[in-house]
């Protein structure tokens, strides 16, 4: 009987934690990943991914209970030079088709300050999954100020990390072209209705 009561109490506690987080959906028009890498020691080259889909289960009172699950099309990458974009989609790098996605699913969140956290998760890119840590900042959470979304709860986050492209089978021309890629992420999300 005691074990049944304990199981019931744990289930109720788990349910209360699950319902403490609110579901937010990403605003694709204001969510991007910008990356940069050193090119042969001469310059820093930049690129961007967009076309996000996904959700954030956001517990503002206890952010460690939050979670993130997002994806974006590999072919959404843009570097500003069409030939380079094409090369990145070739067999030297992604060898991507239209269905290929880059995904991130959080596995834990460690709160590090009033508006900061380390988000650990599984990043899948180029058919390879690696654990990565994002240094994340909550920029703002509140009601959207105007337009059709006025009054809707909204949240914005920035995050950074450094990836080794060779960890994802994308290490062509390293180390002449830097194996390390600096990544900056900025997303907005609205509370789901």
Summarize the structure.
With 193 residues, this protein is mainly beta.
What do these coordinates show?
This protein has 193 residues and is mostly beta strands. It has one domain: Beta Barrel (Lipocalin), CATH 2.40.128. The chain is built from two helices and ten strands, in the order αβββββαβββββ. It has helices at residues 2-20, 82-88; strands at 22-26, 32-39, 43-49, 53-58, 67-73, 101-111, 116-125, 128-143, 153-164, 180-191. It has an eight-stranded antiparallel barrel. It is globular. The N and C termini lie far apart (40 Å). The model is unreliable at 1-18 (pLDDT under 50).
Class in CATH? Mainly Beta
Count of DSSP strands: 10
User: How many helices?
Assistant: 2
CATH topology: Lipocalin
Q: First CA to last CA: what distance? A: 40 Å
Q: DSSP strand (E) fraction?
A: over 45%
